[in-house]
Amino acid sequence: MDPRTIAENVRAVFSLPDIALQVNELISTGEANNRELEQLILHDPALTAKVLKFANSAYFGFSGKIATISRATSLIGHKELRNLVIATSVTSTFDGISSDLINMETFWFHSVTCGVVARLFAVHHKNKAQERFFISGLLHAIGRLVLVSHFPDEYAEVLRSKDHGEHAMINAEREIFGFTHAELGAELLRLWKLPPSIWKIIEFQLDPLKGEEFRDDACILHVATNFANCIQPCVNRDVDFDEIKPAYQPEVWNYLGLDPSISQPIRNESRMQIYDILRVIRPQTVMIY
């Protein structure tokens, strides 16, 4: 059993909606213009409404109302638009996952939290391509959903390690499957034709210092994931810096050279963004939390 084969086998089940795939493909060519993207998105009224809600959320913090897709595209750019389309589409891709082994509301709360936090860490790290961090954080654990869906008995065995922490679950994944959810998720995103700058970050998130050309980005996602584990779903909880040091490789924080004092401002800044995004892509989760 290997992640590439599994991803290829489940691609027909776990595929983005056609509109999201078309937007991604058009932007990936590097030749898309605003008018083409606008016309493509406007063919889907529900997606149009979600994208506009997202563009007007605290995530972007624009002072004026954005009323058109054209205006949204002009302000946020093509890559960020792709992220919005994927983010508003991805939850429906995994709607059929059984809740027997995983609470989907908690899963998406954590995923959105991770995406928001990853982007904020990228801002503080002065990363010049901050737009990819939200979608990388949002999608960082979708490999787990594939495993839960297609290998429920085996993943139930992994979940028995949950009380011993995330590290124990990762070890259990390696022992049972021979790979991790991160590797599987990366393969699925590669098949979705997302750029390597997104799926490679996810592939190396558990061992980011081996990320080669994507090392800095993988380290940011690694830290953000652990940070998100500490602050969600109770986002009002004060964060102890000692708690958010990476669980697998504490030297990752030092490698990034981030100031420990940014942890609390990031927690504060992320709160409104998390709930605003959930209201768009998973409103039922907001009702629970």
Please tag this protein with its features.
289 residues, Hypothetical protein af1432, 18 helices, 66% helix
Describe this structure in words.
This protein is globular. Helix 6 runs parallel beside helix 8 and helix 7 (104-124) crosses helix 14. It has 18 helices and no strands. The termini are far apart. It has helices at 3-10, 18-28, 34-42, 45-55, 69-76, 78-93, 104-124, 131-138, 142-150, 152-159, 166-177, 181-191, 196-203, 215-231, 241-244, 251-256, 263-281, 283-288. The protein has one domain (3-288): Orthogonal Bundle (Hypothetical protein af1432). The chain is mainly α and 289 residues long.
Overall mean pLDDT stands at 88
Cα radius of gyration in angstroms: 18 Å
CATH architecture: Orthogonal Bundle
CATH-derived topology:
Hypothetical protein af1432
- The CATH fourth-level homologous superfamily: Hypothetical protein af1432
Order of helical and strand elements: HHHHHHHHHHHHHHHHHH
| Structural class based on helices, strands and sheet pairing | mainly alpha
Instruction: Count structural domains.
Output: 1
The strand count comes to 0
Distance between the termini: 37 Å
Main sheet: strands, sense, barrel: none
